[in-house]
Amino acid sequence: MDVNPEFEMVLLFNPQNMKFVSADFDGNILGQFSKERDAPDGFGFYPMAAGKFNASRNIQIVSASGIFEYDVSGNLLNSAKRWNQTIVGYSFLFRQPIFQVHSFV
Predict the structure, then answer these.
(1) What torsion do the CA atoms of 42, 19, 62, 77 make, to the nearest 10 degrees?
(2) Contact indicator for 36, 55 with CB cutoff of 8 Å
(3) Phi, psi (deg, nearest 5) at residue 51
(4) Domains defined along the chain, listed by start
C-alpha cells in the first residue's frame, strides 16, 4: 500500500484477512494488525484508498466511515468519523425526492 523511502518503511495489506503489515527495508516486521469491521476502533468495511505512512510514521487509513490513524501495532491514535449523514433518493421521473434515510455512522 505504501513505500516510504524517507522512513525506509513498507506498508502491506492483505484483503483476504484485512491485515496490515509494516516492515523496514531489510524485511523486518515492525508491526501487524487487523481490525474487525464493527470494532470500536475499526475503520469499517474496507479501505477506500491505499493506507499511507504520515509524517509521524503512523498509518493513515481512509474508509467510508472516516479517516483513521493507527500506530504500526494497530492502536487507534486518532479518528474523524462521519456523523449524521442524510441519504436522499431522487426520482427523475417525478423530479422530487422520494425517500430519505438518516444514518449515524
Answers:
(1) 50
(2) no
(3) -65, 150
(4) 2-80 (2.40.10)
